[in-house]
Automatic annotation (TrEMBL):
Name of the molecule in the record: CRAL-TRIO domain containing protein
Family annotation (PANTHER family): SEC14 RELATED PROTEIN, SEC14-LIKE PROTEIN 2
Residues in CRAL-TRIO domain copies: 1-107
PROSITE patterns linked to this entry: CRAL_TRIO, GOLD
Domain GOLD: residue ranges: 128-239
Domain of life: Eukaryota
GO cellular component terms, semicolon-separated: cytoplasm
């Protein structure tokens, strides 16, 4: 398995609010890696971190598990320390000269902006709040408000093994706790996705799981931890039947023998 190393550069104003957002961004990225690409991310180095970033991290790290914490290494503006550590994991010819390696862009730029994209100001027309109405119209989102201390649960009875449960949601201004469980024939409840707080106010949260049957799957949007804020939620949750159940007509040229069809079905669905 290959291990990739990515050096990202962000510019944050030295105010606590922005540093909290920076920490939340890093944690969200790591959680997405762990949830969708386990063991791909080996370590995350945060370099040239301002003091307020470290302060913000100390406050929010209690909300993340120890495994994630072990992958985060924060270094202040002391290049003599982090440059040596980076070279222990990255070969010099794969590390920009600006960070202690030997790699430069064709024009000699030591920061290698052609490979390490610097952050830029997001145009206002691309602000999420300016895109929300258009996106919501193009898909059958349901909009609701989850009051403080309350939660919303959506139940789906699955009768066909291999059906897919898909979700896509976002919130306005604040995060929400999200999870998925299923109840089997004997009434036992199993966690599929352990409920945890997601930054759905920053990025859309999407996912798909293959369902067991017969079972009742429950999608949970939980705001019970919030004592003061209600949350506006836009969500789209749907069950897609197993491909064998879909009424799809194929031309004679597209038909294959049964064994080939079964192989394709296993590859696509499972």
């Amino acid at each position: 398995m290959e291990t990739g190393y990515v050096v990202s550069r962000y510019t944050f104003n030295s105010i606590i609010a922005n540093n909290f957002l920076a920490v939340e961004l890093v944690i969200t990225l790591l959680q997405n890696y762990e949830a969708n690409y386990p063991e791909i991310l080996k370590i995350c180095y945060i370099i040239n971190a301002p003091k307020l970033f470290a302060l913000a991290y100390a406050v929010v790290k209690k909300f993340i598990n120890e495994y994630t914490q072990s992958k985060i290494k924060i270094y202040k503006q002391e290049s003599t320390k982090w440059r040596t550590l980076l070279l222990e994991h990255v070969s010099p010819d794969n590390l920009p000269k600006h960070y202690g390696g030997t790699m430069v862009d064709p024009d000699g730029d030591p920061k290698c902006p052609s490979k390490v994209r610097p952050g830029k100001t997001v145009p206002k027309e691309l602000y999420k709040k300016n895109l929300t109405d258009e996106v919501l119209v193009n898909r059958d989102y349901v909009t609701t408000t989850i009051k403080k201390g309350k939660q919303l649960t959506l139940d789906f009875f699955i009768s066909d093994p291999g059906s897919l449960l898909q979700w896509d949601f976002r919130t306005e201004d604040h995060d929400i706790r999200f999870g998925v469980t299923y109840t089997d024939e004997n009434g036992n409840v199993h966690n599929v996705i352990t409920p945890s707080r997601t930054s759905a106010n920053l990025v859309d949260v999407t996912g798909t799981i293959t369902c067991k049957a017969p079972a009742t799957y429950t999608v949970i949007f939980d705001n019970s931890y919030s004592r003061f804020r209600s949350k506006t939620l836009h969500y789209y949750v749907v069950v897609v039947e197993h491909l064998n159940k879909l009424d799809i007509e194929s031309s004679p040229e597209a038909r294959t023998n049964e064994s080939e069809a079964n192989v394709v079905d296993r590859v696509v669905v499972h």
